[in-house]
Amino acid sequence: MTKRDYYEILGVSKSASVDEIKTAYRKLAMKYHPDRNPGDKQAEENFKEAAEAYDALSDSNKRARYDQFGHQGLRGGGNDYQGFSNVNDIFSHFSDIFGGSSIFDELFGTGGSRQHSGRHKQPGIQGSDLRVTLGLTLEEIAEGVEKTLKVKRFEKCTNCSGSGAKAGSGSTDCPTCAGSGEIRHVSRSMFGQFINVSVCTMCNGEGKVIKEKCPHCSGEGRVRSEATMKVNIPAGVSNGNYIPMRGQGNAGIRGGHAGDLIVVIDEIPHKHFVREEDDIIYDLTISIADAALGAEVEIPILGGTAKLRIEPGIQPGKVLRMRDKGIRHLNHSGRGDQLVHVNIYIPTKLSSKEKELFKELSKSENMRPKHKGKDSDTKSKSFFSKVKDSLS
Predict the structure, then answer these.
(1) Are 164 and 214 in contact, with CB atoms under 8 Å apart?
(2) Cα dihedral 247→252→256→259 (10° resolution)
(3) pLDDT of 309 above 80
(4) How far apart are CA 323 and CA 337, in angstroms?
(5) What DSSP character marks residue 211?
(6) Which residues have C-beta within 8 Å of that of residue 136, sequence separation ≥ 6?
(7) Which of 13, 161, 171, 182 minimizes the number of CB atoms within 10 Å of its CB?
């Protein structure tokens, strides 16, 4: 059975932050929790499916492999996802989601039946992701390239080491939430007790407040700066592909995790070639004389030029293939071809001598087209149809 896309399961974009992924998972876990859906096998499967997606996307290494290779990237090398044998496995596996103070324990009274460690709360506020567009030529795409990027972003304040606190002042537990980072409101109904948990607005969920703000960063723990970094682009990428650089986005507030830098590939149109997957297509125009007599012509290829032999009597629309002159396959060995589409130039103005020569030639039976029967393939084809035929 084909697995669904993990981002689709959680309902988040591919550039979603860790906190957004966690929030999306908590919502699904609440919806499909077995205690809320007793005896519902489909709900239990949805619950496990969401847990599998979170397991892959919350881990930066697994997520990087999944982004590049899909589900195949999580197989092999001892990284196969084996699933969870039961719901208790999920609770024990994700202590950051289902900790001892988990809302599930309070809603469903599960604290006695499942033993969990205390909830681990990350300091600070997650930094946002950044997105940059990187223009690449076909030559760069064909072979792969290392590029240097300059990115304006928030970086950790060196004066306070990202804490946001003035040197010597430190921080203390938030008086509003007593250091928990959450405000809990208990309500009762005929169905039992319900607890609404919201982020503490005083400390933004951090559980700590600083005593005195760092004068350099105004208490944020980060400052605006410009960073220079290198990114390796593999051969064979396509327009719209993206490369996630984990932790290279904006620094978090007061020690929060940094966001990611998403490098989006923008393929620059080439003056000679059109790309068709990993093949490149070149339009070659030759004279009537060269078409009739044959010739050797020099044409551009990626990274230089090459000689191409034109056989005598070549017809307009013919597609010639130059093997292995195209783009390297992404994550595979080998490369595409260069396809040369032959056009024949018909002059629009002739000198008196040229007219006489053509009149003389027109008298030859060999210069007149041979009519084909009804069953022959005389229908015109598009250029790309001819290219397809040449490859089949």
Answers:
(1) yes
(2) -30
(3) yes
(4) 5
(5) S
(6) 145, 147, 233, 237, 265, 266, 267, 268
(7) 13
DSSP state of 221: S
- Cα separation, 44 vs 89, in Å, equals 13
Cα separation, 75 vs 78, whole angstroms: 7
Residues 50 and 93: beta-carbon distance below 8 Å: no
**Chain segment 90-134, per-residue pLDDT in tens:** 554 554 454 444 444 444 444 433 333 333 455 678 899 999 999
Checking DSSP bridges between strand 338-344 and strand 319-322, what pairing results, if any? antiparallel
Residue 264: strand pairing partners: 133, 242
CB 49 within 8 A of CB 9: yes
Q: Are 341 and 322 in contact (CB under 8 A)?
A: no
For domain 1-120, say whether CATH 1.10.287.110 is its number: yes
Q: Are 93 and 48 in contact (CB under 8 A)?
A: no
The CA distance from 25 to 11, in Å, is 9
Each domain of the chain, given as residue ranges in start order, spans 1-120, 273-391
Whole-number average pLDDT of the chain: 82
220 Cβ contact partners less than 8 Å away, ≥ 6 residues apart: 154, 157, 164, 253, 254
Q: Do domains 1-120 and 273-391 have the same CATH topology?
A: no
Asked if residues 262 and 355 have their Cβ atoms less than 8 Å apart, the reply is no
d(CA 84, CA 94): 12
Element at 184 (helix H, strand E): strand 182-189
For 359-381, how does the pLDDT look when each residue is reduced to its tens digit (9 = 90+)?
Answer: 888 888 888 777 665 554 444 45
Strand partners, 209: 172
How many Å separate Cα 198 from the centre of its chain? 33
Helix (H) or strand (E) holding 101: none
At 132, which helix (H) or strand (E)? strand 130-136
Q: Which helix (H) or strand (E) holds 267?
A: strand 261-267
Q: How far apart are CA 301 and CA 138, in angstroms?
A: 11
Which CATH code for domain 273-391?
A: 2.60.260.20
